[in-house]
Write a structure and sequence with these properties.
Helix content: 25-40%
Structural class: alpha/beta
Radius of gyration: 21 Å
Strand order of the largest sheet: 3-2-1-4-5-6-7
Distance between the termini: 27 Å
Strand content: 15-25%
Order of helices and strands: EHEEHEEEHEHEHEHEHEHEEHHHH
Length: 350
């Protein structure tokens, strides 16, 4: 049965999450529409995805709404499906962070056992949503043909080892201000090639300073190129950002600066002067580190076939066919958030 589906985002970093799903839906002959607000407003997905506004989204009456955000416009028809905008990196407590249940979604499509098991426990208690481990659409291009995107980013390295740097926007956790000079020194040395990126919410002045490092030994990449950069790089330098987990899924080494919750698969350090030493360790990982990388990758995202988008669609079909059982009505506690969403978006229709 061909149907219309709506993709929803509030930040630009959601676009690489939604694009593989859009491709999979289109391959099945479905109509794919996208509504982007807040930080994602003005962004687009390439045709034949049809960009719509609020009134068009409501009139569409989609079969399902796929959200790569913490919330979803509940006044739009269709099953509400949570795709997540990142991995759990323990920036906040479970109750305030990754495992917070807001009473807005019908289906949570989880990335791997580390996410699935806590959400299944919550679903058994709450009973107003279903949980299916599908893998994460954003990572599909890591494990299948990416039309040469990663190779194109790697080509300017000319055979040199390639380091990717990514940083969160959360000021107390961001490595970007602290490591700028150390990274600049590494780039100037020229023995490695760098792919540099920042979270879209980082300050403009920080963007300007990192963009200025681009040249023969570095390139600045945009959010939409993130997955291709992860595939291209040999080692990641980061902080407490979910890019760490995305990179580790490939079982490649990661160096983290003052990570909020350092794990055995991370090479964590606190002083910028130690950056050369930490990178040297990452480019020569020992057996212990390799084992820790593999264990963590299997816990957060064991599916490596590049078909998570197809599983999301199948899980949504099963939910709509009643194969996930009967869900309870959404809790009264979610009513206030639903009203907030209407107020924020300016919609007071049905």
């Amino acid at each position: 049965m061909m149907a219309d589906y709506l993709l929803f985002a509030t930040e630009r970093y959601a676009l690489p999450i939604l694009q593989p799903l859009a491709d999979a839906l289109q391959a099945l002959g479905h109509g794919v529409h996208a509504w982007f607000v807040d930080g994602a407003a003005g962004s687009t997905l390439p045709a034949p995805v049809r960009m719509v506004g609020m009134r068009e989204a409501v009139a569409l009456r989609p079969r399902a709404v796929f959200s790569a955000a913490n919330w979803v416009p509940t006044f739009v028809d269709g099953a509400k499906v949570q795709l997540f905008h990142g991995f759990n990196v323990e920036k906040r407590s479970n109750e305030r962070g990754h495992f917070r249940v807001r009473g807005l979604f019908d289906l949570y499509c989880t990335q791997g056992p580390a996410t699935t098991e806590p959400f299944r426990a919550l679903a058994a208690r709450e009973r107003h949503f279903a949980v299916v481990e599908t893998g994460w659409p954003k990572l599909d291009p890591l494990f299948r043909d990416d039309d040469g995107s990663a190779a194109a980013l790697r080509a300017p390295a000319g055979g040199r080892p390639l380091v990717m740097f990514a940083s969160t926007f959360t000021e107390r956790l961001s490595a970007a201000p602290h490591l700028l000079d150390a990274i600049a020194a590494e780039v100037a040395r020229g023995d490695r090639y760098w792919l540099l990126t920042l979270h879209p919410k980082c300050p403009p002045e920080l963007f300007a300073r990192y963009r200025a490092l681009a040249g023969a030994s570095a390139a600045f990449i945009e959010t939409e190129q993130l997955v291709a950069a992860e595939r291209a790089a040999d080692v990641l330098l980061a902080d407490t950002t979910s890019v760490v987990s995305e990179f580790v899924v490939q079982r490649k080494p990661v160096v983290t600066f003052r990570n909020r919750a350092p794990k055995p698969h991370m090479l964590d350090f606190a002083e910028p002067s130690r950056l050369p030493e930490m990178l040297a360790q990452a480019f020569a990982p020992d057996a212990r580190l390799q084992g820790a990388l593999a264990d963590y990758a299997d816990a957060i995202h064991p599916l490596r076939d590049g078909r998570s988008s197809e599983r999301v669609i199948a899980a949504t079909d099963a939910l709509l066919a009643g194969q996930r059982g009967t869900l309870r009505r959404k809790p009264l506690s979610s009513l206030w958030r639903r009203l907030q969403i209407r107020r924020e978006l300016g919609y007071w229709g049905r």
